[in-house]
Design goal:
heterodimer, A: mainly alpha, two-stranded antiparallel ribbon, about 70% helix, B: about 325 residues, ABC transporter involved in vitamin B12 uptake, BtuC, two-stranded antiparallel sheet, 2 strands, Autoinducer 2 import system permease protein LsrD (chain B), transmembrane helix (chain B), cell inner membrane (chain B)
């Protein structure tokens, strides 16, 4: 009961619901509770301060349409962070996906190409970091530069028409719910199921908390860490597809801000950068906080200059709440 | 029995020399390769006037990278150097300083660098927050402050002294090159000759061991970040002088490039390695490669690819050789 990774044979007999509760009660999720509280406070403040513009169906529709790319990329980043890594190449992969979708080919060719390219980036990141031992920040900084360069080579200026089926998948609504919300629900459920409901998830927490111990316990530590980079790159590709479809056009720089925002979303959600603590539940609220703050500052007519300051301060505060043992990176 | 405790025989002079050469930074060999390539394909590249132009262009990056050397050798990272450059650029081109002697804006700029470095260092050491996230956060805040000061429209009231530092020449030799050399000598003395440099290397190599050996690990890290802030501000000052006007978004590409230069110079996170000479060579190599690519007609996108490849290859080669 005290450590779900050591009692894997016992927990594997538990139902999905019990296992989820076990993980959710676990102190690793304390950050998620805090960020849910922060989310609620910001929501109430905005609702009181801007009732006319904030509490409207139209604004919520906008919010739900805007948030999925950050949410999807943030979930991928969360898994990498849980495994003790760091992925700075998320933004470039989003841009590359957008550039590939603008190629003069049928969408049945460009969509698999974009996914394949992302998986390749993830594998290269994982190989360099796990097999060669390059520091995650250096490795993903390098691949980020390479991938951004390729994106700009494929598509030097914004343009192209997004594939019609993708556009259909982000516009409109189902049962009164915007399609963006459906993306969030599906991907959120998949991510929470993966981390809290499968052996992979348990192994991921173990690897992130203590890689050497995980390896000695017979967990495929290298494979798990590599797969987090592949998942992160693939989710960045999905985020890039959503973004391209929403803009109805491609832009080779579309992801540049999302790389860092994905780290911000995960950190605000209580996922520690040292690995093994946090999870996608917190990231849901982390993304929500970023979305509400951006939305609120826009509605209140606050200069975007202040938004830089607020975002940076939030990032610093969110990582300062949980003291780590080590100092430095 | 005596064989066992016998002291190892001293390696021959040739072997010792080989061993020393093997420890030279990757940038040294890269620089030789690039110079050879240039000599055979673009001979005018190696003419003295052109090299002086390259030197003037490389000086701001060279100085910023020297500051980054302190943090990376100390197992940390400063992602706020780009924002510091931008802030310095906005500050020194602001109309407020019209009519004041140049020493005022220069001091304000350097103090801004100290302040950002100090805040980074305090957050990282006192709150023990991750250096990556802290410096990303301060970068965002500093960028916002820069925008606010400029009001979206940066001024162009830059003092002629700052322009002279950035653009001026003594005969053929650029003034900014002199600043780079002076910075490199200061960084070399601190890292190689002072006890503080030993502290940085020890803390970077193994923070716990350094702590238990009585080395003031946190204070060392704090000072490393202040050094990085000051050097970034000086680099920003020289870059501003070179450009001559205030410009929003200046310096954004210096974050990646400064890290690239340091890694090419042989430093790695936690390696407790790297130094001023390596970083200077790394900067030269990076600027050489980027300019050769321009000569060969490769665009910005291609340069991003090459820069990323160079970082990845240097890091992989280093890891492979360190593992052996």
């Amino acid at each position: 009961m005290s450590d779900s990774t050591l009692t894997s044979s016992a927990t594997s007999r538990l139902s999905l619901r019990d296992r989820f509760l076990l993980d959710a009660r676990w102190y690793r999720q304390r950050g998620a509770a805090l960020s849910a509280l922060t989310f609620a406070v910001i929501f109430v403040v905005l609702a009181i301060a801007l009732p006319g513009s904030f509490l409207t169906g139209r604004n919520f529709g906008n919010l739900l349409g805007q948030l999925p790319p950050l949410f999807i990329a943030g979930i991928g980043q969360t898994l990498v962070l849980l495994g003790g890594g760091f992925d700075l190449s998320v933004g470039s992969v989003i841009s590359l996906t957008s550039a590939i979708l603008a190629l003069p080919l049928h969408w049945s060719a460009t969509v698999p190409m974009a996914l394949g390219a992302a998986i390749a980036v993830g594998l290269v990141n994982g190989w360099g970091i796990v097999k060669i031992g390059v520091h995650p920040i250096i490795m993903t900084l390098a691949t980020s530069s390479i991938v951004q360069g390729i994106a700009l080579t494929l598509l030097p200026v914004p343009g192209g028409i997004a594939p019609a089926p993708l556009v259909a998948m982000v516009r409109g609504d189902v049962l009164g719910l915007p399609l963006g919300a459906l993306w969030v629900l599906v991907i959120g459920a998949l991510a929470i199921g993966l981390t809290h409901g499968t052996g992979f998830g348990r192994a991921l927490y173990a690897v992130g908390a203590n890689p050497a111990a995980a390896r000695l316990s017979g967990l495929p530590e290298a494979r798990i860490r590599i797969s987090t980079y592949v998942i992160s790159a693939s989710s960045a590709a999905v985020a890039g597809m959503y973004l391209t479809a929403r803009l109805a056009s491609s832009d080779p720089n579309v992801g540049s801000a999302l790389g860092l925002d994905s780290v911000l979303a995960a950190a605000l959600g209580g996922t520690l950068l040292s690995g093994g603590i946090g999870g996608p539940i917190g990231t849901v609220f982390g993304v929500g906080i970023i979305g509400l703050l951006n939305n609120g500052m826009n509605l209140a007519g606050i200069s975007p200059f202040y938004q830089h300051i607020v975002k940076g301060t939030m990032l610093i505060v969110s990582v300062s709440l949980f003291r780590r043992k080590e100092v430095g990176l | 029995m005596t064989d066992v405790i016998q002291a190892p025989t001293k390696p021959s002079a040739a072997r010792r020399m080989l061993r020393t050469i093997a420890h030279w930074p990757p940038a040294f060999w890269g620089l030789i390769a690039v110079l050879l390539l240039a000599a055979f394909t673009q001979p005018h590249f190696l003419s003295v006037p052109f090299l002086m132009i390259l030197l003037r262009q490389a000086a701001p990056l060279g100085i910023v990278a020297l500051g980054q050397t302190f943090t990376i050798a100390n197992r940390s990272l400063d992602l706020s150097v780009g924002a510091v450059i931008m802030l310095v650029n906005i500050l020194v081109s602001d109309r407020i300083f019209l009519g004041f002697p140049a020493v005022i804006p220069i001091s304000v700029a350097l103090l801004a660098g100290v302040a950002v470095g100090l805040i980074n260092g305090l957050l990282i050491t006192v709150l023990r927050a991750s250096a990556v996230v802290v410096t990303l956060g301060t970068a965002s805040v500093v960028t916002g402050i820069g925008y606010l000061i400029s009001g979206g429209a940066p001024g162009n009231a830059m003092s002629d002294t700052i322009k002279y530092i950035g653009r001026g020449r003594i005969e053929l030799f650029p003034v900014s090159g002199l600043f780079w050399i002076a910075s490199a000598i200061i960084a070399w003395i601190i890292l190689r000759k002072l006890v503080f440099g030993r502290f940085i290397m020890a803390a970077g190599d193994n923070p716990s061991a350094a702590h238990y050996s009585g080395i003031p690990v946190t204070r060392t890290l704090l000072v490393s970040h202040i050094m990085s802030g000051v050097f970034a501000a000086l680099g920003g000052l020289i870059l501003s002088g070179l450009i001559g006007v205030g410009s929003l978004g200046l310096g954004a590409d210096y974050v990646l490039s400064s890290i690239a230069a340091v890694i090419l110079g042989g430093a790695v996170f936690g390696g407790g390695a790297g130094g001023a000479v390596g970083t200077v060579l790394g900067t030269m190599l990076l600027i050489m490669i980027l300019n050769l690519l321009t000569v060969f007609g490769i665009d910005e996108a291609g340069k991003l690819v090459v820069q990323g490849l160079v970082i990845a290859v240097a890091a992989i080669i280093y890891q492979k050789s360190a593992a052996r």
